[in-house]
Automatic annotation (TrEMBL):
<dbReference type="InterPro" id="IPR050789">
    <property type="entry name" value="Diverse_Enzym_Activities"/>
</dbReference>
<dbReference type="Pfam" id="PF00144">
    <property type="entry name" value="Beta-lactamase"/>
</dbReference>
<protein>
    <submittedName>
        <fullName>CubicO group peptidase, beta-lactamase class C family</fullName>
    </submittedName>
</protein>
<dbReference type="InterPro" id="IPR012338">
    <property type="entry name" value="Beta-lactam/transpept-like"/>
</dbReference>
<dbReference type="InterPro" id="IPR001466">
    <property type="entry name" value="Beta-lactam-related"/>
</dbReference>
<feature type="domain" description="Beta-lactamase-related">
    <location>
        <begin position="19"/>
        <end position="380"/>
    </location>
</feature>
Length: 399
């Protein structure tokens, strides 16, 4: 569907996005996908291709429900900043003021040392450290170093054993940090800690807080940590990349209600329309039809760079959610600093994030534009979908 009013985008060039989508399905790289572009207050491109389930040939529809994984992080970060505006905490406040398990953290001496070989942290972990992934908290990885393997073995992949985030955070706090707080940027479980912090401060389960404070005001009726039985037929199948194409993932039921472990770092499901409502609010600097979710000064703080440079000077080199040259990081989102250094089309000040199953979104205030990609292929590094779509979206600008 291409609306008659394309709001400064060339309809012929927009058709290149449709061709690109169809090619990914036809060539067996993706089962299905959806792309939507919003500009100057209206949707100007919304297309779907392929199947929500390849085996049954169930098509991708406007109400298809997608696992958005780490696109949960901007939602959780915004929710926490809403509490910040209410005076619940300061950004430089130690998180142990609210989560005592993180008092007196120890720092692992690194590969080649046992996990018992640690040194005291130079300082405590702050809430700002968690918002900016500078806390020393990493993800588990069964193929990683000793610490990453141990985190995975303990159930902190959230695929077994643990039943609540309170329990998960307690387990996480028993492990040493990967590096001194504030020393570098390294993507990990920090936003999951923030999700539990919201529960402690608000006295509500995270899902309830997000529903009452964000989803209901925005009209996001299909977004949450679980899919109810009456909506389960709309859930897209999750796929893993395989030689010559893709195969259905072993984990298809982790999001079916009831879900008790509500991951603020990666647990949400959503539809294109719902996430568009969230992205539109971000484009409007925190405003929604009913007023504001976040004040404009707090919002501007969220989407500015907190790194003092780009991620190439602060972070790890092997993570694929974003490029590192020319890109910084704010409070829960990446921030474009210099498209020339990033070697990709974009605008300074544009902010973004993506998810493990190759979903992505970005918001470009200069172009008054948002772009959302929904699909379900793990890992997100399987193809350069995000960079390809970025070029295709911007090449269509005609004004």
């Amino acid at each position: 569907m291409q609306p008659e009013d394309t709001l400064g985008l060339d309809p012929i060039k927009l058709s290149r996005i449709t061709n690109w989508m169809n090619a990914h399905v036809h060539d067996g790289r993706l089962s299905g996908l959806a792309v939507q572009i919003f500009r100057r207050g209206k949707i100007c491109f919304s297309e779907r291709a392929g199947f929500a389930d390849a085996k049954s040939k169930r098509p991708v529809l406007p109400d298809t429900i997608w696992r958005i994984y780490s696109m949960t992080k901007p939602v959780t970060s915004l929710a926490l900043l809403m509490l910040y505006e209410e005076g619940a905490f300061q950004l430089d406040q130690p998180v142990c003021d609210f989560l005592p398990d993180f008092a007196n953290p120890q720092v692992w001496k690194g590969p080649g040392h046992t996990l018992n070989e640690t040194e005291p942290a130079d300082r405590g972990i702050t809430i700002h450290d968690l918002l900016t992934h500078q806390a020393g908290i990493v993800y588990g990885d069964p193929q990683g170093n000793e610490l990453e393997r141990a985190l995975s073995d303990s159930g902190l992949d959230f695929d077994r054993g643990l039943t609540t985030m309170a329990e998960a955070v307690e387990v996480l706090a028993s492990f040493p940090l990967a590096f001194q707080p504030g020393d570098r940027w390294f993507y990990g479980l920090s936003t999951d800690v923030l999700g539990h912090l919201i529960e402690v401060i608000s006295g509500q389960p995270l899902g309830e807080f997000l529903k009452t404070r964000i989803f209901d005001p925005l009209g996001m009726v299909d977004t949450g940590f679980a899919v109810s039985a009456d909506k389960s037929g709309r859930l897209a199948t999750l796929y893993d990349r395989a030689p010559g194409g893709f195969v259905a993932s072993d984990d298809q039921k982790g999001f079916i209600a009831p879900v008790t472990l509500e991951s603020g770092g990666g647990g949400l499901l959503s539809t294109m329309d719902d996430y568009q409502r969230f992205a539109t609010m971000l484009l409007r600097r925190g405003r929604c039809d009913g007023g504001r979710l976040l004040g404009r000064k707090a919002f501007d703080l969220m989407v500015c760079n907190h790194m003092g440079g780009d991620l190439a000077s602060r972070g790890q080199a092997h993570f694929s959610e974003t490029t590192f040259e020319g890109v910084g990081f704010g409070l829960g989102v990446s921030v474009m600093l210099d498209p020339a250094r990033a070697k990709i089309i974009g605008s300074p000040g544009e902010f973004a994030w993506g998810g493990m199953a190759s979903t992505a979104f970005w918001v470009d205030p200069i172009e008054e534009m948002t772009v959302i990609l929904m699909t379900q292929l793990i890992p997100s590094s399987a193809y350069t979908l995000r960079r390809e779509l970025r070029v295709l979206s911007y090449q269509a600008l005609a004004d």
